[in-house]
Amino acid sequence: MAITVVPYSADWPVRFERLAGTLRAALRGVPGAVVEHVGSTSVPGLAAKPVLDVDVIVPGRDVPGAVAALAAVGYVHRGDLGVAGREAFRAPDEDPARHVYVCTRGTLNVRNHLAVRDVLRRRPDLREEYGAVKLALATDPRMDVAAYLAGKTAVLQKVLAAATGEFTEEELLRIRRLNDPEG
Fold it and tell me: How far is CA 168 from the centre of its chain?
């Protein structure tokens, strides 16, 4: 399956806000639930796969309630898909195309997503470098998701290193292994 990366669209944050409103309404009975736009579509100016990434961040005790709330509005729970502290969902429709996760507050996965987003928003040099890598990888028609993730690992490690003091060396290694298990 080829990877599609497109130039940034100003429509992405608009679509996210509309979706976030729906998610927040569904999650109103879940104390402390926060809906975050993460991933490349959350970074103005960054080329991205045209799919919104959404983390619903909750305290660990509220994960079951958040899972139930999303299921009640048509999201299909898919389990953690091998990432501890993150529950994946299939959306009830494709408008907008999206990945939705319920994530336990404070986990490495959440901290990783937020740090990458925040660094890329404030560092145009890293944003441009990351975008160029993604666009170059997407030119290979044989590119699959695993190779795409692995191909982005080096630049993502630079991005995470710019999140000064956020991650230990061991945490950076865990993130690197998650993105590129063979690297």
Answer: 21
